[in-house]
Amino acid sequence: MAQPDDMFGDDDYPAYTMGRAAEIVGASQDFLRRLDEERLFTPFRSAGGHRRYSRYQLRLAARAREMVDQGTALEAACRIIILEDQLEEALEENRRLQGEEPSGRRDS
C-alpha cells in the first residue's frame, strides 16, 4: 500500500468512491458503470467490492461525458478517447527515445 505522502501526487491512486466520482464528473453512477462496460477504464475494487476511481479515470470520464453531451455515441466516445490516449503514450515514448543518444555512437 502506498504511503499517504505518495498518494497526494498520484493520479492513479483510487481515491474516489463511485458516488463522489459521479458528483465530480457531473454524471450518474450508471454512466460510470457504462464506461467500465465499454472498457474506457477499469475501476479499482475495494476489499468490499466497491468501485474506486483515480483522478486520471475521472479526467477520462469527464471527457467522455463532454463528448456524449455534444451528441457522440457513448461507444464511439470511449473508442476515440482510448485511441487518443494510446496516441499520446506513443508520442511520449517517441519523445523519450528521441532525447536519448543513439546506441553505439559517440561524437569525438
UniProtKB/TrEMBL annotation:
**PROSITE patterns assigned to the protein according to its UniProt record, in alphabetical order:** HTH_MERR_2 (PS50937)
Coiled-coil stretches: 73-100
- Every copy of the HTH merR-type domain together lies at 15-83
Q: Does the keyword Ribonucleoprotein apply?
A: no
Sorted alphabetically, which keywords does the UniProt record give?
A: Coiled coil
Asked whether the UniProt record includes Coiled coil among its keywords, one would answer: yes
Pfam families with a match to the protein in the record = MerR_1 (PF13411)
The record ties this protein, via SUPFAM superfamilies, to: Putative DNA-binding domain
This protein's name: MerR family transcriptional regulator
Tell me which species this is from: Actinoplanes oblitus
